[in-house]
């Protein structure tokens, strides 16, 4: 069963920043939900150096119709110079949940 559900993932420097961005995106109906995953350790190369950071990952749920706007809005709100903002299409899911996501992001 094909869906239009999209998962967006991003990491943030703190729980407070992650919560603020998530609340804004839910309030503005860009995403139906954001699940905060605290205390992930990221290891990455930045400006020629290997860095590590304790971050909070957020998994956002939205639709294909709202994903571009969600990504653009997240970019404005995000404090990182080059934030991780990636989308993952969902190929199947529980119909009631898929319907809820669609209703939650519909602009009225």
The radius of gyration is: 14 Å
Q: Percent helix among the residues?
A: 25-40%
Lateral arrangement of strands in the main beta sheet: 2-3-1-4
Quickly give the structural class. alpha+beta
Briefly characterize the structure.
The chain is α+β, with helices and mostly antiparallel strands and 108 residues long.
Main attributes of the structure:
elongated, 4 strands, alpha+beta, four-stranded antiparallel β-sheet, single chain, 108 residues, Alpha-Beta Plaits, 32% helix
Task: Describe this protein's structure.
The chain is of the alpha+beta class and 108 residues long. It has a single domain, classed as Alpha-Beta Plaits, CATH 3.30.70. Helices cover 32% and strands 38% of the residues. It has three helices and four strands, in the order βαββαβα. It has helices at residues 15-27, 67-77, 95-105, and strands at 5-12, 33-46, 49-63, 86-89. Strands 2-3-1-4 form a four-stranded antiparallel sheet. A hairpin with a 2-residue loop joins β2 (33-46) and β3. The chain is elongated and about 45 Å long. The model has no long low-confidence stretch (mean pLDDT 95).
SSE layout:
Elements: E1 5-12, H1 15-27, E2 33-46, E3 49-63, H2 67-77, E4 86-89, H3 95-105
Antiparallel strand pairs: 1-3, 1-4, 2-3
């Amino acid at each position: 069963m094909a869906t239009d559900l999209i998962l967006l993932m991003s990491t943030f420097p703190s729980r407070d920043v992650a919560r603020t961005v998530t609340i804004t995106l839910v309030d503005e109906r860009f995403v139906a939900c954001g699940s905060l995953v605290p205390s992930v350790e990221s290891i990455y190369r930045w400006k020629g150096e290997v860095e590590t950071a304790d971050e909070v990952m957020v998994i956002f749920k939205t639709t294909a119709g709202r994903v571009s706007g969600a990504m653009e809005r997240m970019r404005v709100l995000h404090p990182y110079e080059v934030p991780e903002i990636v989308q993952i299409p969902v190929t199947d899911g529980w119909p009631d949940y898929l319907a809820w996501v669609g209703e939650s992001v519909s602009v009225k």
